[in-house]
Amino acid sequence: MWRVLRDRRYLHGLAERAGFLRPLYKRTVSGAIWLHAVSLGEVLSSAALIRRLRAEYPGSALFVSCGTNAGRQVAEEKLSDAVDGIFYLPFDYCFAVRRVLRHIRPASVIPSHANEQATMNGKLVDGTKTARFVNLVRDTDVFLPLSGTVMEFNGRGRCVVGCTTTRQRGDR
Known about the structure:
With 172 residues, the chain is an alpha/beta fold. The protein has a single domain, classed as Rossmann fold. 33% of the residues lie in helices and 22% in strands. The chain is globular, with a radius of gyration of 15 Å.
C-alpha cells in the first residue's frame, strides 16, 4: 500500500491489488493453480515451472500474480501464452486476498519466495512475508517450493513432490 502512495506508477493496477480482477478472468472451475511471484526475479525463476504445469495439465487454469511493475510487464511478455491470467498481487489484507480466492478458486497456491528464506528444514518460517501471505490464504492448499527440488503435481492441481504444504483441505 505504501508503495502505491509513494510511487504513482503503482496506481496502475490498484483495483487488482484490492482483489478486483478483470472480468476477463471468469470464475474458474476448481483445480486452478495460482503462482504468487512477487518480484521480476521470481517471475523469471518461475517461468519453467509454469510452462511445465501448462504442458502437464492443459485443462487446469493457471494464474500468476506479480508485485512489481517490472515483474508484471515481463510476465505479460514471456508468460501470457502459458497462463490464463496475470494480475497484480493483492494487498496483504484478508479482504483483498479472499476476493481473489473467491474469483479464481484455486486448488493450489504456490508462493514463490526467492527473495527470502521462507522455509527451513521443510517448514514455513514464522515472521516472513510468505508466512503472512499463507495465513491469509485460508482453506486453500499452499505449496511451498523446496530449494533444489523439482515440483510435481497430480491431476487435481496438488503438489506431490518437491514442496511442503501448510494445510490440507482434503479432496473436493
